[in-house]
Amino acid sequence: MIQSFGWQSVQFLFHGLVWTVGLSLCTFVGGGIFGLLFAIARSLGPNWLRALVAGYIQLVQATPLLIVVFLSYYGLSFLGFYFPPLAAAAISLTIYATAFLADIWRGCIEAIPRTQWEAADALALSPFQRLRYVILPQAFQISLGPTVGFMVQIVKNTSVTALIGFVELTRAGQLLNNMTFQPFHVFLTVAAMYFVVCYPLSWWSEKLKERKHAGTAH
Amino acid sequence: MAYEMNFTPVLARTPELISGTIDTLILSSQSIGIGLTIGLAAALLRVDGPKWGAVVSATYVEAFRNTPLLVQLFLLFFGLPYMGIRLTANEAAIFAISLNLGAYSAEIFRAGLLAIPKTQIEAGLALGLSRLQVMRYVVIIPALRIIYPSLTGQLTLTLLGTSIASAISATELTLAGAKIESQTFRSLETFLVLAAIYITMTFVFRFLYWLVGLWLFRRRVPKTGSAAATLTLPREVES
Amino acid sequence: MPALRIENLKKSYGNVPVLKGINLAVENGDVVAVIGRSGSGKSTMLRCINGLEPFQEGTIEVVGHKLDQSRANLRELRKEVGMVFQSYNLFPHLSVAENITLAPRVVKGLPRDEGSALVREVLSRVGLAEKADAYPDELSGGQQQRVAIARSLAMKPKVMLFDEVTSALDPELTGEVLKTIAQLAEAGMTMVLVTHEMGFARRVATRTVFMHQGTVWEEGKSEEIFTHPKTPELKNFIAPDLK
Ligand SMILES: Nc1ncnc2c1ncn2[C@@H]1O[C@H](COP(=O)(O)OP(=O)(O)OP(=O)(O)O)[C@@H](O)[C@H]1O
Ligand SMILES: [Mg+2]
């Protein structure tokens, strides 16, 4: 039992940080896979599929993350599935990240000028080859900055899962606060730990965006 | 093991849902008013201020953009009393959400200010306008037009972000919903109803932003494409 | 009293000197063409004259307003000194009429109902009376530049500065802008114009200044400068135009 804020507390929080990072990675991988599929469906699929994906993106982006988390955790367990907090956390964050990543990447695909599509067509590439060799590589380049920027959001979003009892960094902070009654120290340390993870990502994202601008200036 | 949906107990609490919605709207608009003011000040300090101002502004922006809103809430609500400042849950919520929006909108405003070519400012100065007049007549509208999609997107994220304030029991819609859920045990129905209310609010606000945009930029409707098309460009996603 | 007097003007960017002691006097009604190689400091001098660039040494006196390192009086000076830029710099969100009336309204307090008369007056001077309600991106480059001239005229300047105002234009459009400037010259406007149009400088300018390496290298009556250049640098510079 930790009585007051000290080295042990930092270790305790660090344990939470490991879960935060783990959950962030799961979310990024899950959101990345579905986001890419959805982005392609949204910009290149048949009309009914585009409308479906657009509807999904619109609805999720208009719902608070916390409500998505609650719906997964409390709501779906009543449907007969039991979700442990980790699974509910990963699923809800993935649902959320998918919508945003799909929207970001759709923007990147649509940012490739029509002339590139036409040039690929003129070279007799098949639709798949056109995507594989011409469009996606260019879209990938411009998506790097915003994608890394969204990773920061994912890391911060994981904190919301503390509210369904998943013990990541923020929940660890709450527990520690209940033991030590030193909220200022506890939450400042928690904030510092998030900062240490997020700031380098933000910085990297800015660098990637700058490089993109420098690239288009020529 | 089929589950029977039953919205009746939740809908019976409509008055609470309505007052929760109103509380959310109040919390959002207060935070947006304060947050945008902070953001504009921080952006001007960064772009046009003295060196120390730029450092202060950048530090503030990075600190708040790289930590979760929930932790900011906890720190202000539970942590500030340690420094002798005691805030009610609602005050802490307004404070935290405003500072959070301030940091994001500072970056958006800064991008807008930097997007206006220096030659436009020089042309204004050469005509004898003061720096303030150049801001007011030459810079603001074109800059606002450039950032309008990302700014309104950010405001939507702020509206939705207020739900997190329920974690410190600030009065707003999600807290009202949590209370209903714990008393009716109709979790799925409760949160579906909440989702529907938030989605409706978001769509109504997007529509209002669109109308405001039409009004703000009424003087110049682009010849190619409708004004609406330029107002719904993919925005940068940040929360 | 000259309309414009520059004494010992020195300016550097960092430790790179760009203007190394400029002396120049422009009388009322003079039309002075400034010519010289790229990088010789022509634009910098012009931008110093209406305070867009600070400078390190010397004084500039324009229509009674003294400008030195302190940069006081800047706005008073700018009310009486117009400037037209190479890239037009019209305000894209304002119509032609609004571009023209903005400064008279907010700087000089021109009443709203006098705006349209002013717009008509200055637009007719540049031959664009029918374009008052257009927006900048609906105009050709030459028309935009003439609107920029009209916008500057609306402040009733005593001196006008032109920085390579035709360089961004196609040859067909250059003519209409030069014609507008020539008409202003005939009407007696005091002007300093940086230009690469040697023929125009020779015809319209009363005097021509040749800048070289940050100094006024040679100056005189335009006819003299172009027919009897004294320094080898100037000879070299205008040689292709004499063929
Ligand atoms: N903002 C600046 N920072 C540093 N150096 C500058 C800056 N602006 C101009 N210079 C330098 O000052 C010198 C003079 O520039 P200026 O623009 O006055 O030349 P110019 O005679 O107008 O040339 P051009 O005919 O190409 O317009 C150039 O060597 C230029 O590189
Ligand atoms: Mg120049």
UniProtKB/TrEMBL annotation, chain B:
| Annotated GO biological process | amino acid transport
Q: List residues traversing the bilayer.
A: 25-47, 68-87, 93-113, 157-178, 190-212
The alphabetical list of record keywords is: Cell membrane, Membrane, Transmembrane, Transmembrane helix, Transport
Which SUPFAM superfamilies has this protein been placed in? Answer: MetI-like
Question: What GO molecular functions are on record for this protein?
Answer: transmembrane transporter activity
Give the location in the cell. Cell inner membrane; Cell membrane
Pfam families for the chain: BPD_transp_1
How is this protein situated with respect to the membrane?
Multi-pass membrane protein
Q: Which InterPro entries match?
A: AA_ABC_transptr_permease_3TM, ArtM/GltK/GlnP/TcyL/YhdX-like, MetI-like, MetI-like_sf
Domain (ABC transmembrane type-1): give its ranges.
Answer: 21-209
* Xref: Gene3D superfamilies: MetI-like
**Which coarse location class describes where this protein primarily resides?**
membrane
Source taxon at top rank: Bacteria
Does the record carry Cell wall biogenesis/degradation as a key word?
no
Q: GO CC terms for this protein?
A: ATP-binding cassette (ABC) transporter complex
Q: Does the keyword Aminoacyl-tRNA synthetase apply?
A: no
Please give the family membership noted in the entry.
Answer: Belongs to the binding-protein-dependent transport system permease family. HisMQ subfamily.
Q: What is this protein called?
A: Amino acid ABC transporter permease
Which species does this protein come from? Phyllobacterium pellucidum
Automatic annotation (TrEMBL), chain C:
The keyword Cell membrane is assigned to this record:
yes
- The ABC transporter domain is annotated at 4-238
**Where's it mainly located?**
membrane
| Name this polypeptide is given | Amino acid ABC transporter ATP-binding protein
* Domain of life from the UniProt record: Bacteria
Q: Which InterPro entries match?
A: AAA+_ATPase, ABC_ATPase_HisP-typ, ABC_transporter-like_ATP-bd, ABC_transporter-like_CS, MetN_ABC_transporter-like, P-loop_NTPase
Per UniProt, subcellular location reads as: Cell membrane
Organism the protein comes from? Phyllobacterium pellucidum
The top of its lineage is: Bacteria, Pseudomonadati, Pseudomonadota, Alphaproteobacteria, Hyphomicrobiales
Q: Which GO terms describe its molecular function?
A: ABC-type amino acid transporter activity; ATP binding; ATP hydrolysis activity
